[in-house]
Amino acid sequence: MKTRGAFALSRHAVLTCWTLVTLFPIYWMLMTSFKHSGEWVTWPPRWLPHAPTLENYRAVLAPGTSTFELGRQTLKVLKPLWDSLLVAGVSSLVAVALGSALAYSWARFGTGGPRYPYNLLTIRMVPPIVIAVPFVVYYVTLRLLDTYAGLILVYVATSLPYVIWMMLAFIDDVPIELERAARVMGASRFRVVGTIVLPLVASGLVVTFLFVFILNWSELLLAMTLTNTEVSTIPITLNKFQSANEGRAYGPQAAIGTIATLPVVVLGFAIQKHLVRGFSFGLLRK
Amino acid sequence: MRAGDPPAPDRRAVRRGVLGRLERERVFKWIPFVPVQTLFVALLLPNFLLLVYLSLLSWRITRGAWWNAPFTGLDAFMVAIGDERFLWALARTFLFAAAAVPLELGLGFGLALLCRSPFRGRRVYSTILLLPMMIVPAVVGYDLSMLLIDQGPFNQILSVLAGRAITVRWLSDYTAAPLAVIGADVWQWTSLTFLIFLSGFAGLPQDPIRAARVMGATRWQVFRYVELPLLKPVIAIAVVLRSMEALKIFDYPMLLTQGGPGNATETVAVYLWRVGWEFARVSHAAAMSLILLVAVAVYVFIAIRVLRRERRRLAAEGIA
Predict the structure, then answer these.
(1) Which A residues 55-84 touch B at CB under 8 Å?
(2) Residues 127-166 of A with CB under 8 A from B
(3) Which of A91, A135, A157, B86 has the highest Cβ tally under 10 A?
C-alpha cells in the first residue's frame, strides 16, 4: 500500500513536470499577445501583462489595417489566414477521400500489390527540399506556380501516405463477415462501402483529417517554394516577420501564432477521445 | 484477409449500365488507385527527370532560361562533394536527428507508460501533453525565439533554479543554438510519440496479458515478455515516422536562428534552400539534392524492410 502511494505521487510529479514544460511556451505566447509593446522585452521578463490589451489582435486582424508595417516591407495577415484555411482544408479533404478509398481497396483486394503502402511511405520519406528545385521549373511550365491548385495538388500528394497508413488501422477493424453478409444479400459494392464501412470508420476519417490538416496547415518549405505573391500561408507570413531583423514585432507575431494555433487545438479537443485510437497504424495484434 | 466475392451467386449479379460495370471487382478496386497513381506520376516523375537533368547543367536562375544552359556533365556533383558546408550540413542533420529522435521516443514512451491506466487527472494530463503537435512548427520556432532571447524568461527560470544569474545565449552561441533547435523538435514531437504509444497501449490485446497474470507472472515480466513484444511494431513505426521527419528539419532553424550563428544550425534542408534560392546556384542544388536522396535512400530501405517484416509477422501469427 505504501509503495503504491509513493508510485502515484511520483507519477504525478513527473507528469506535472512535463506538463509545465509543455505549457510554458504556449503560456508565454498567449501572454505576449496581450502585452503592450513596452512589455515585450523587459528584464526581468513580465509573466503577466501589466494592462492587458487587444491591440496586437486589432493590428493583425482589423480589415483596414490588416497590413503590417515592418521595416520596408508590408505584410498582409488576413489573406494568408484565409489562404491557409482554403489550401489545407481542400487538400486534406481530397487526400482523406482518395486515401481512405485506396486503403480500403488495398486491404480488401490488394490493389497495387503487397508493397504498395510501403512504396507510398517511401515517397513521404523523401525530404521535400529534394524536389523543391525542379518543382518550380515544372510548375512554371504548367502555370501552376503561385496558384491555389498547385499548392493543393502537392499537399494532397504529400499527405496521402499518412492517410493510407492511418486508415488501414481503422479498416482492419471493420468485420469482413459483415460486408460478406451484405453482399450475399444483394447489396452492391458501393452500398456496402456507404452503409457498412463508412459509418464504422467515421471516427477514423475525422482523426486522419485532423492529422493531415495539421501537417498541411503548418507546412513551410514547399509553400515558400511554390508560392510568391498571389498565395501565401500563415507559416510563410511568420517566417517573413521573423527574417525581417529590424524591429521585431513580438506582440503581433504572438497574436498571429495564437490565431494560427486556436482552430487546430479546438478541433483536437473535440475529437480527443478518438485520437487515441488512430495512431497505432494497424500494427497491433487483435 | 481479402473479402473477394462470396461463393453464393449474387441475386442481382448481372447489373447493367455504368454502375454495373464499376461494380465488377477488377474495375471496382482500381477506382481509387487510378487518380492517386496519376497524381504521383504526374508530380514526381517529371520532377525527378528534371532534377537529374538540371544537375548535369550549369544553370543559375539569373542567367537566362534553363534549356539554354550549358551542359557540363558531372561538374555540379564534383562541386557538391567538394563543398564542405554541404557535407557539414548533411552530417549535422543526421546528428540532430540522432539526438532528438531517441529523446522523443524515450520521453513519449515513458509518459505513455505513466498515463496508460486510469487514475485521477489522467484526462487533464493527456490533453495538455497532446497540445504541442497541434501547433504550427513555424509558430513553435517563433515562440521559442522569444523565450530564448538573452534576457528572456527561459534564462530567468534557469537563474532562479540555479540560484545565480545565468545568461546562456541560446540563439547566438555555437553550442547552445543547436541545443535550442533540438529542444524545439523534442518539445513539439514528444507529443506525437506520446500519442502513438498511448494508442499502442490502449490497443493491446488483453487475453495474453491476463493469461500471463494467471500463470503468476510479475508486473515486470508481463511488461517485458508479453506487452513489449506486442508493442514492437508500434515502436518500429514511431521510430520510422519520427526519424524520417527529423531528417527534413527546416522550420526550427529557419525561424529560430536562420541557420546561425555561423552555420551552427544549418541543416541540409536550410542549406539547399539557400543554394537554390539565395545563391541561385540551381544546378549545384540539384546535384546536392540527388546526393541527399541517396543518403536518405539507404536509411529508407532499412526502415521499410523493418516495417514490412513486422506487419507480415502480424498477419502470419495474429489474424490468420
Answers:
(1) none
(2) 127-135, 137-138, 153-154, 156-157, 160, 165
(3) A91
d(CA B61, CA B276): 9
CA distance A19 to A71: 38
Q: Are B101 and B243 in contact (CB under 8 A)?
A: yes
Tell the residue number behind the cell numbers 501516405, with chain if given: A161
CATH T-level fold of A78-278:
MetI-like fold (1.10.3720)
Q: Does A19 touch chain B (CB under 8 A)?
A: yes
List, for residues A134-162, the tens digit of each pLDDT value: 888 899 888 888 899 999 999 999 999 99
Q: Residue A167 and residue A165: Cα distance in Å, rounded?
A: 6
Where exactly are the structural domains of chain B? 75-319
Q: ipTM value of the model?
A: 0.88
pLDDT at B132 over 90: yes
Domain locations along chain A: 2-66, 78-278
Positive or negative, the Cα torsion across A221, A227, A228, A230? negative
Q: At B60, which helix (H) or strand (E)?
A: none
pLDDT of residue A228: 81
Angle, alpha carbons B298-B303-B308 (nearest 5°): 130
Q: Which ranges in chain A belong to alpha helices (H)?
A: 2-32, 55-61, 78-109, 116-125, 128-142, 148-172, 176-184, 189-192, 198-218, 221-226, 234-243, 250-270, 272-278
- For the domain bounded by B75-319, which CATH number is listed? 1.10.3720.10
The pLDDT score that the predictor gives to residue A75 is 61
What backbone phi and psi angles, to 5 degrees, belong to A75? -115, 135
**What is the C-alpha end-to-end distance of chain B, expressed in Å?**
8
Are B318 and A286 contacting, i.e. CB atoms less than 8 angstroms apart? yes
Contact B29 A109 (CB under 8 A): yes
- Nearest Cα of chain A lies from the Cα of B209 at a distance, in angstroms, of 13
